[in-house]
Structures are given as C-alpha cells and as structure tokens.
Amino acid sequence: MVLLAAAVCTKAGKAIVSRQFVEMTRTRIEGLLAAFPKLMNTGKQHTFVETESVRYVYQPLEKLYMVLITTKNSNILEDLETLRLFSRVIPEYCRVLEEGEISEHCFDLIFAFDEIVALGYRENVNLAQIRTFTEMDSHEEKVFRAVRETQEREAKAEMRRKAKELQQARRDAERSGKKAPGFGGFGSSGMTSSNSATIITDTLIEPEKPKVASAPARPSAPSKALKLGARGKEVDDFVDKLKSEGENIMVPSAGKRPSEASKVLAPPVNTESVHMRIEEKISLTCGRDGGLQNMEVLGMITLRVADEKNGRIRLHVNNNDKKGIQLQTHPNVDKKLFTTESVISLKNPDKSFPLHNDVGVLKWRLQTTDESLIPLTINCWPSESGTGCDVNIEYELQEEGLELNDVVIAIPVPSGVGAPVIGDLDGEYRHDGRRNILEWCLPVIDVKNKTGSLEFSVAGQPSDFFPIQVSFVSKSNYCDIQVTKVAQVDGDSPVRFSMETSLVVDKYEIL
After folding, report:
1. Where are the residues of the annotated region Disordered (predicted)?
2. What is the Cβ-side half-sphere exposure of residue 160, based on CA atoms within 13 angstroms?
3. 42: which of 90, 211, 290, 347 lies 20 to 30 Å off by Cα?
C-alpha cells in the first residue's frame, strides 16, 4: 500500500490539516482536496471514490471529513483499517470536531499521523503506542525537573532570609539614629505595583534613588536529562516552509494578549515612605443599536506607610466628582471628619496606620445607565453587499479629561472566509485567524485624538461582528478624586508622599 497523504478537510474541500507522505507540492494537494467533494456525488460508494490517478478513502467526522489519498493499486481493506486508526486519533487531541479546534491542535495531529505512516506505508502501531510515542515520557526528564524545582525553592528561601537580614539591619540603624549604608530606598524598592505613578512632593529635597537588590543566582549544574528538542525543530521547519509558500502564520507570544482586560501600566519609578494608589475598574455593557445597559466604576484609595515616623498622618482629599458617586470610608477612619472637612484620619488620633501594609482607606462606586457618562463610545455599522459585508466602526472619546493608552478594539470576524480587506484606518490592526478576531489597536486616545474610524470588508452577516470587546489603561481616574496633601496629626506639618493613579477595564462590551 502506498499512502500519498492524510488530511482533515471541510465539506467544501478546504484543507484544515494535511500531511503528505510522499513528495507533493502544496498546490497539488489543495487541488486534490478541492476536487474531492465534487467526486462524492458521482457514484454510490460511501467509503471511497476513485479518479484516473488516485483513490480517496474517507470517513465523515460531523461537519468534517477524514480523507486518505492513496494510489489506485493499494489494498482497500488495509486502507480502511488505516482510516479507522486515523479517525480514532483525532478525538484524542480535539475535544470537539470543529475547524477551530482542529487548527488549534494541528501540530499534535501531524506528529500522531507520522507515527501511523512512514514513507507512505503504515506502521504496526495501535492507539496506546501512538499516545506513548507522542508524549515522549522520560524518567530522566522528571528527575531533572524535580531537582530544578528543589533548587528554585532553596534559592527563594535564601532570598527571603537575606531580605529579613537587610530589614533587621535597617531597623537597628534607625533605632541607633544612624543611616545604614546601602539601604537607601529599601522600603520602596521591595514594592511592586501594576499601575503608573505620578510623584507629588511638598518639599524640594531630592528623593533617594531606590537600589534594586540583585536576585540570587539560580544554582546550575550540568544535566544529563533527555533533551526534547527534535519535535520543536520539526515544528519550526514546518512553520518556515508554510511562510515560504505565502501562508500568514500567527505566532502566539509567551505573554498576555494585548486585548486582555488585565493590562497593566509600568511600575512607578520612585516611591516615598507614604505611598498611595488610586485605582479604578470600569465594567460597561452597551447595545449595538445604542443605549447603555449598565456601567459600574469601582474605585479605592490604598495607603502604604513604610516609616513609623509618618504613621500618624491625615490625608486631605479633593473630591471634584459631579457624576454622583457613593463614597465609603474604612471603619477605623473618622467618618464625621471626612464628611465635614474631606480629611481621612483614624478615629483614635493617637494610633498609627499599619506599617508595610496596603490599607484601603476610601472606596467609591458609580452605577448608571446615563449614556452621557460613557467614557468611550463605539459605533459599528455593518451593511450587507453583494460579496459579504462592509463594516464601518468608529470611536469617540466623550470624557475629554481622560487619556486612554494601549486601546484595543476586538471585532469578531467569520471563520473560514479569509482575512478582511482593510479600507480607511486610523491606527493599526491585527488579524488573528485562529481566534477569528480583528484587533484595532490605538496607542493613545485623548482630546487631540478623540475620534477615529476603521473600514473593512469581509464575507459574513451583520450579526457576525458582535460582541465587540474593548480594553485600555489610563494614568488618570474617571471619578475626579485626588489626595492633595498629607500632614502630621501633631503640628499639621506636611509629609512627603507619592501617588499613582490608574483606570483599567474589567469588562467593556458592545453586544
């Protein structure tokens, strides 16, 4: 038996995964698969169909076909047995037999196909052996990973021990009234934040530059563990070959996708011993024909004190919000003082704020269905044409005091119709064929760049382009609440402080 190729294709003959076992060009295999659906109606066969040069042996997989292309003189009984094994392999890697799932696990399927057939002839293997061969289970690799994890745990424990020693040395130096050499900015260098910082100082003293402590080197030792690099090299070679034939390959990044709502801004450059974070999260749902279904903004001021000399302080808050937010202070904060003077202070003025802990002192909530309060409006107009849909989508910044960064507007597009044709465009775009999403990327949207539009054409229906997902981050908050001054409880002398402000998206959908 000579097996020329094995492929998973749609009912229209579009190849999703195809593995050739003899030398064949891509054009040749695509032509054979494109002719396959037309030949199925010529006879009464339900498992195979023949042409002058090849034989197709096939099995339906819901909306797809598993197809083997063989020579005409091959043994049909062996072909059917091989076909059954191919069909049993696919559910091992794909939870559902759909085009997107097959594409997601295409390389796993190709590796499994290679275990079944070599150089056009079937190997004597069963399903369990194929699973074992593709997993490449290695005892030496497990031992190596266990040793490496142990080394990592020991390095982390050593790092924590060193950090405790440095903290103790700093506290001892402060008690004796001397400045410990080499510990400038230690309290702030250990802090990390997911938001941008705006440093506000009340004096002209030059702030200390934080010193970044070097992480302990991970112990390394020569390893004789099994190297699993052959399969990765085969994948790279296969991707390079596809690129050389003109195929657009989306290479997923190791980090987060830009369209994820968990985007973060750069950490602050410097922080004082009194540091505050003003954080807001927005959740919004709009209808495609207009109308705000729900909008909720949750905000909080978090205080962190790193020096016990600044533990007994008061925060002067400037509330310029005119949107009707609901404010709530921490139970230990003097609510009456905040209501009358907008000052955050502990009920017992003799007590200090907790040291080296993030304490939420004030939070607020805004929930509305007022369309005028939408910070960024998205308008999508899909209109049907003779060849599909012409889509015009535009944005407008309504809250002109905001500056939105790293804006990504993710528009669904139909699967299996190719890349959309882009017309007028403000900004940049990315087409993810695997996720069937067109991402419209805008670095900044502000008062100078408050409107923009994107036009594209693609086959589909108007309902195919919803829901639209939006994500962004901002260095300013939506509800205008700021801390303007920090002062000591005794004497009302000003205290140096730093502050970082951020607005992130929890959910922003146009349904």
Report:
1. 166-192
2. 5
3. 90
